[in-house]
Structure formats: structure tokens, C-alpha cells
Amino acid sequence: MSAITVTDLTKRYAPNGPAAVDGLSLTVEPGSIFGFLGPNGAGKTTTIKILTGLLSATSGTARIDGLDVARDRAGAMSRLGAVLEGSRNVYWTLSAWQNLVYFGRLKGLRRAAAGARAERLLTEIGLWDRRGEQVGTFSRGMQQQVAIAAALIADPAVLLLDEPTLGLDVAATRAVKDRLRALARDEGKTILLTTHQLDVVEELCDRVAVINRGRAVADLPTRELLAQSRSRDHYELRIDGDADLLLPDGFTAERGEDETVVSGRADDPETLYRLIDAIRAQGRRLHSVDQVRPSLETVFLTLVAEPAHA
Amino acid sequence: MPDTAPALAPPSAPPPAPPIPAALAAEIRKGLANQLAHPLGHAVTLAIGISMYLGLQYVMGQGALRADLMPATLIAIGAYWFLQYSGQVMVADLIEEQRTGTFAAAHMSVAPLWAAMAGRLATAALFALPIAVLASLVPALAVGIRIPWHPAALVPCLLLAADILAFTFLMAAIAVRTPAVGAIHSLLTSLVLMLNGAFMPLALYPEWMAAAARLLPTTLAIEAIGRVLLDGAPLAAVWSDGTLPLLIAHTAALAGAGAWLLHRNRRLALADGRIGRY
């Protein structure tokens, strides 16, 4: 059984308005880290909100651990922890300890069980000695760690994280990434995360779905997605000086005083030859031509630039 | 055949707590901790409020704190503080939580929303009650006024508290979707302060104003408490004149409207994604 199953999910905020999520289907296998990507307004947060029971779907189903969020909300919530983007997620006026016990009780834990679990989680994130301090006095990174711990308080099978590393510094981002990796690897948690930081996805996620305009435009294992894109020919050309060229489709230029870097995808070698001819015609010196490995960012931009699949 | 002893059952996780009592207890504990995180703020607010009340009484008494006028106003000022603080704890905090997002986090509970709201209402009552008692008791002790206690007064006191809490619940149900209700709540609270006899006994109000004030069930309840406590009237008297039945009906109407609005607003907020944000 999949940990998360979304089937033909559609959400319209107005009866005749555009679909924020449009017939989306995806599954997330237990114990995996799933990257859920898309540009702003693609429908990621809407999907997350439906999965967390904070938003009702217009049609379709969302299941957590086999339980339909709309029909068995309490059951689904008991198997789910979530950290939402743009929210505090925890009470800043309360201590880390008070927050964890509170959220544990809301998930149906007995007080003693919530306390024992809170002790373990706070020890794991290194905040046990500061358990009595108000969360508002913590750094942003520590607050995010407390929010993740609060989401984990009832030991849920599934963790949904909306932009978990947004606004964190390098060290705090590293700490969160290490924690998520350990949760999936050592505790078998299923993690669905959305982020715009594609290095996080490339580093952590077993599988990636990219949505655009509410529809999935890709849903593949991360390695496969990258490999598939790497089979395409991406080139980077370095040209002397500030070159003003008419670029073929799919190419972009970063112009500098000393050097212009032109990069893009050339499925047809003729495209590359024509570009080189154009450089020669301008009398520019070509420093180098390299076949480059596209990053996930390049892949993502290519995918969301293409029209959504019907 | 091997000797097979029945295997020991593995240690199992403790059974889950009943979700509704657990959510109620969690909300009360969280709400009180939240309020007590900044005790100095409450102390200063209370000190200013009591000073203003005494100052006003001094002006009303034309340079004296009059022990003949103050007892009735002490009951009214206590009721006002109960109204004011229960609103602050439940309505203002809910608006703040909708804005910051913690309401959404709390909404991912296994308990229904009404259980969380009931917990918040209980917190409001638990926190507002001692504030109201202090707001009445401190000036009474400062001036040396002694209000005799009659157990019969407990009934109108409880009905007044229930009416105020039903009003607070209604405001909170609206606040699930409409942050502007905070301003409306403040306006209505101020209106109650002006009309409930907290400044001076209703007997000293202009006749039309006293009549308008008596349209408010809270004013009637305060008068009923005064009649039992200060005039020694029996409970039957304030029941038979219709004050208490009216209060019960008003409380039931407010609570019913609050429950309906909470259900409706939750459904609408789930449809347009406003749980956790306005």
C-alpha cells in the first residue's frame, strides 16, 4: 500500500474558475522521500493543504496510509505530520516542551506518552537543555527543527513538508537535510516535500514529481529524471567580450564585459553549428564549447516551460 | 512435540487517549500557558483598569469614593472585565493564530474543531474569571466596601458568565473567517461597558438611557445579581420577573448561532483554504 495516494485530484476555488489542481494523480511509496516541485502557483500548496485536511477537494481523493482524508479525517491525521510554509507551525510564546506535548495531545497521545516522545525528539535535535525556553527566542533554524519535531510527535508514518529549508542559513539547511535523510533511512518515514531549492531535492529525494498549472508534467525517480534529461545535448559556449547574438530557441546568454556565456539545449547539431557560425560572423573569439550536465534546475525549467501534458 | 509456551505479547504502545478530552485538556493547558507567558502585561492592564475605575468613581462622587454608589458598579465592572478578557483570550488569540498559521497546525488534530473551540472557551473562562474577581475585589478592598455573599446569587452569576461566554463563542465562530470581528467585538464590549452600569448605578442614568441599557441581557443580569446580593431579594423574585428566563433564552440563542456559524465557517474555510490564513 502506498503511503500517499492522490487520485484524479481537482480543486477549483471558484465554481467556474480555473483549476488550481487539475486531475492530479500520484503515489508515494513508504519510506521514500518524494520531491514535489513546481513554479509558484502550480498547485503544490493546494495539494499539500488537501492532504493535510485544511482544504476540501472539488473532486478526486487524497489518501494517507490508505485512509481517505475527506472521509476519515481523524484516522488520516493520526498518521500524518506536517510543516506548512509561511506559517509558524508552533507557538512562539510556548516552550519547545509545551509545544510538543500540546501537539502530541492533539494527535491523541496520552500525556505521559507525549512527554516521553517529546523528550526523545528534543534530545535528537539537541534542544533538550533548552526545552523550557520560549520558541520565539530560538533561531530560525531551531524553530524549524521544533516544528519538524512537533510534526513527528505522534510518530506518524507520513511527513509533509512545505518548503522546509526556506529562509534557513547553510548550517541550518544542512541540519534539516540530515534529519530528513535519517528519518526516511532509519525510521522508515515517508516524506513528501516541496521546495524551490533544487539542490535539496537532488540531494534527498528518491523520486520527483513536477507539476505545472495543476497538472503533473513529470513523475520519475530523481536519477531517471536527470538521466533522461542528460541524454539531451546541453551546451555551454564561452565567447570573448560582450556579444549580442540572435540566439536559437532554448538558448540563453549571460553577458559580461570580458566574456559572454551562451548555454542551452541543441537537439539538432545544426543548431549548434549555426550558433558557432553566427559567433564567427561577428568576429568574436570562441573560448570554449562544452557539453554540460544539466542540473535539476535546468531540467525543472525545461519541464515547466513546456506546455502541460493533456 | 516441542513444549510450546505461549509467546509473550510484545510490549505494545499505550492506547491512544480519547481524542476529545485530550484536545480539551491540551487547549486549556496551552491557552493558559500562552496567557501566562507575559504576566506583566496583564498586571499592568489590570492596574491601569482599576486605577481608571477608581478615578472615575472619584469624579462621579464629586471628590469622594462613595460607598453607597460603588457596590453596584463593582458587580458591573467585574462583568465587564470577564467579557473583555474572555474575548481577548478566545477571539483575539484566534485571529492572531489565523494570521500566524498556528490555527492551521492545531487544526490537523484527530479531534473535531468544536472540541478545540470548547477548550479555548474553557480557557477563556478560567483566565477571565480571576481577572474579573480581582478587578472587583481590589477596588472594594481599597475603599473598604464589603459586599455580602448570598449563595442564591450564584445562579444569576453563572447565567451571566454563560451568556458572556456564549457571546464570546459567537464572536470566535465569526473570527474563523472574518478578522474584522475583532474590531466589532471591541465596539460591542465598549458599548456594554457604557451601558452595564460600571460607571454609575443605572438608577442615576437618564431614563431613556437606562431603558436602552436594560435591552442588554447582561445589564439585566447585573441588576439581578445586585438585587440578590445588595438588596437581599430571593432568587424567586429575579426568576419571576423574567430576568433569568430571558438570560437563559439569550444564552441559548447566542450559543446556537455560534455553533451554526462555526459549522458554516469551517465548511467555507475548507472550501476556500482560509483555515490558517485570512
Automatic annotation (TrEMBL), chain A:
**Topological category with respect to the lipid bilayer:** Peripheral membrane protein
**Any one GO MF annotation of this record:** ATP binding
State the compartments where it is located: Cell membrane
List the SMART domains.
AAA
Q: Where mainly found?
A: membrane
Annotated coiled-coil positions are none
Q: Which InterPro entries match?
A: AAA+_ATPase, ABC_transporter-like_ATP-bd, ABC_transporter_ATP-binding, P-loop_NTPase
Mind telling me which residue stretches traverse the membrane in this protein? none
> Can you tell which superkingdom this protein's organism belongs to?
Bacteria
Keyword set, alphabetical order: Antibiotic resistance, ATP-binding, Nucleotide-binding, Transport
Tell me if Chaperone is a UniProt keyword of this record. Answer: no
- Which family does this protein fall into? Belongs to the ABC transporter superfamily.
Question: Known PANTHER family for this protein?
Answer: ABC TRANSPORTER ATP-BINDING PROTEIN, ABC TRANSPORTER ATP-BINDING PROTEIN NATA
Protein's name in the database: ABC-2 type transport system ATP-binding protein
Q: What is the lineage of its organism?
A: Bacteria, Bacillati, Actinomycetota, Actinomycetes, Glycomycetales
TrEMBL record, chain B:
Q: Name one GO molecular function term.
A: ABC-type transporter activity
Q: Which stretches are transmembrane?
A: 36-56, 121-145, 152-176, 182-204, 242-262
This entry carries the following GO cellular component terms, namely:
membrane
Which Pfam families is this protein grouped with?
Answer: ABC2_membrane
Q: Where is the ABC-2 type transporter transmembrane domain?
A: 33-225
Q: Where in the cell is it found?
A: Membrane
Organism domain of life: Bacteria
UniProt signal peptide: none
Q: How does it sit in the membrane?
A: Multi-pass membrane protein
Mind listing the UniProt keywords for this protein, alphabetically?
Membrane, Transmembrane, Transmembrane helix
What is the protein's given name? Answer: ABC-2 type transport system permease protein
Lineage of origin: Bacteria, Bacillati, Actinomycetota, Actinomycetes, Glycomycetales
